[in-house]
Amino acid sequence: MKKWIYLVLVLVLASCEADFQTWKDLNANWLVQNKAHYAATDSLKVMPSGLQYKVFRNGYGAIPKPTNSEVWVTYTAKLIDGTVCDSGSVKSLAVSDLIPGWQEALCMMHEESHWEIYVPYTMAYGVDGSKATGGNFHVPPYSIMIFDIELHDVLNY
Question: Do residues 58 and 110 make contact, with C-beta atoms less than 8 angstroms apart?
């Protein structure tokens, strides 16, 4: 009996890992396709870190610093399949407390800028993703995150 339970458990875990591998592959391919889609234009910028971004509006105000700045942003977070994970308007976010993809992007943005950023999983929620209440994944492992960000104000620049 214990052998059967162990076998079922191994099969279930292997199935979950295979699903995450498929999701990981889809996400990796998506970044390559996104870059290729915009190759004929200059609208997509690609950083050495892998961060990709489009500028809808460049502001002219202050630029946050990674160590001590706080920002007021309006944002929407999505997965590559269009699923909205989060959105809001937050008036006091410490740049140093944010995921690396946000830190890199915000430290290039002027106040009143509006960008869309495409964050590789290595600069977002990584191989673990993030779990919502109840244990289900809020952001699955290996997820590229797409953020629409408007930077309204910068404190301590």
Answer: yes
Burial group, residue 13, by CB count within 10 angstroms (0-12, 13-18, 19+): exposed
List of domains in the chain: 2-155 (3.10.50.40)
Do you know the residue count of the chain?
157
First to last CA, the chain: 64
Q: What is the identity of the amino acid at 126? A: G
* Model confidence at 8: pLDDT above 90: no
Best CA proximity match to 34, nearest among 103, 117, 113: 117
Q: CA triplet 42, 54, 98: central angle to 5 degrees?
A: 145
Exposed e or buried b per residue across 71-100, where buried means at least 16 C-beta atoms within 10 angstroms of its C-beta: bbbebebbbbeeeebeeeeeeebebeebbb
Spatial separation of the C-alpha atoms in residues 114 and 98, rounded to whole Å: 18
pTM recorded for the entire structure: 0.84
Decide: 127 and 142 in contact? Cβ < 8 Å: yes
pLDDT grade for 136, boundaries at 50, 70 and 90 = low
